[in-house]
TrEMBL record:
This is ABC-type Mn2+/Zn2+ transport system ATPase subunit. It comes from the Bacteria. GO terms for molecular function: ATP binding; ATP hydrolysis activity. The keyword Nucleotide-binding applies. Keywords: ATP-binding, Nucleotide-binding, Transport.
Length: 324
């Protein structure tokens, strides 16, 4: 992180009965959303494709205005936190190179131009983009553009950082760097809210999980800590009573092939065409999840939930506030 980090972050944010539709009289994408984001929160947002995750992130980031309800500073806060937002795809049609763009945005965020240029150079170097700092943005590859988008968010050291699949398209070292930067923001008292297709992203560190479901936002049980494959050593007592439910989607014709990786470790059910649910003992979940994420044909892991074995031995949903 650059020098002079961890400036005051500006407190938390509250969503009060927030709703969103994109046109008057159109369908509500979100309704009745109540959410508190305290300083130091690392919040993960989950949910099915098209359910409204990106819409929620845009509302939190202030990129979209709510159609109803309000976003308010938490009581005792210092106004809306300074905010940066990184979308999944950043394709700027702007007459800038990376340095010019980042310096300009740094100024918008209140940095002196010299400090903005210094921070831009620092992050471009860390992300391995220093040699492309003077290439026009429109000539950069998708991955390089994504690095520029991440850089503009990190160099501003915002109180609220909103990441919509921001890891997608980054190379592995840059993903690790972004993970670290998120930790630094949270440790500095900032709020980070993110969506990512990999359920293991920052799994042991997430402080709040919510799912967008049926047009509203419900809390989800905490993620299981990531553990080593093929060993029971060191597992907490009673862990074997826990179950995990993994929901996946894939093109219907490819789903069976992709699910072969589950083997005998779990019970697979198919609620609808391209959807499947895998229930299994918690001790097998990390290994199976790794195999599912690497499955060919590929599939999309929609959610991973910890559940408790009920009296019948079947999994019961734990810690969710809504129904499907
Ligand atoms: N700018 C827009 N104008 C009109 N409708 C929109 C707009 N953006 C999103 N929508 C609609 O809102 C709904 C929710 O979309 P959103 O992108 O928020 O979902 P998502 O959960 O992020 O999806 P995905 O997982 O596929 O990225 C969808 O029906 C989408 O078509």
């Amino acid at each position: 992180m650059s020098k002079g980090t961890a400036r005051h972050t500006g407190g938390g944010l509250r969503l009060e009965d927030v709703g969103k539709r994109y046109r008057a009289g159109g369908p509500w994408v979100l309704r009745g959303v109540d959410l508190r984001l305290e300083p130091g929160t690392l919040a993960r947002i989950e949910g099915a494709n098209g359910g409204g995750k990106s819409t929620l992130l845009k509302l939190i980031a202030g990129v979209e205005a709510p159609s109803r309800g309000r976003l308010l500073p938490l009581t005792g806060g210092h106004g809306r936190p300074s905010t940066c937002y990184v979308p999944e795809r950043f394709a700027p049609a702007l007459p800038f190179d990376a340095t010019g763009y980042l310096t300009h945005l740094g100024s918008v965020h209140g940095l002196r131009r010299r400090e903005a240029a210094r921070r831009a150079a620092h992050w471009l170097e860390r992300l391995g983009l220093a040699d492309q700092a003077t290439v026009p943005l429109r000539h950069l590859s998708k991955g390089s553009c994504q690095k520029v988008a991440v850089t503009q968010a990190l160099m501003a050291e915002p109180g609220l950082l909103v990441l919509d699949e921001a890891w997608t398209g980054l190379d592995e070292p840059s993903r690790t760097l972004l993970d670290d930067a998120v930790r630094e923001r949270v440790a500095a008292g900032g709020i980070v809210v993110f969506v990512d297709h990999d359920p293991r992203r920052l799994a042991g560190e997430v402080t709040s999980r919510h799912a967008v479901r049926d047009g509203t936002v419900v809390p989800v049980a905490p993620v299981l800590p990531v553990e080593h494959e093929d060993t029971d050593a060191g597992k907490p007592a009673g862990r074997t009573a826990l179950r995990v439910t993994i929901e996946v989607t894939a093109p219907e014709a490819e789903l069976d092939a992709a699910l072969h990786t589950v083997g005998a470790a779990g019970v697979v059910t198919r609620p609808a065409g391209g959807e499947a649910r895998v229930e299994l003992a918690a001790e097998h979940s990390d290994a199976v999840l790794r195999r599912l994420l690497g499955a060919a044909p590929s599939l999309h892991v929609r959610s991973v939930r910890e559940t408790e074995a009920g009296p019948s031995g079947r999994a019961q949903r734990a810690g969710e506030g809504g129904s499907r």
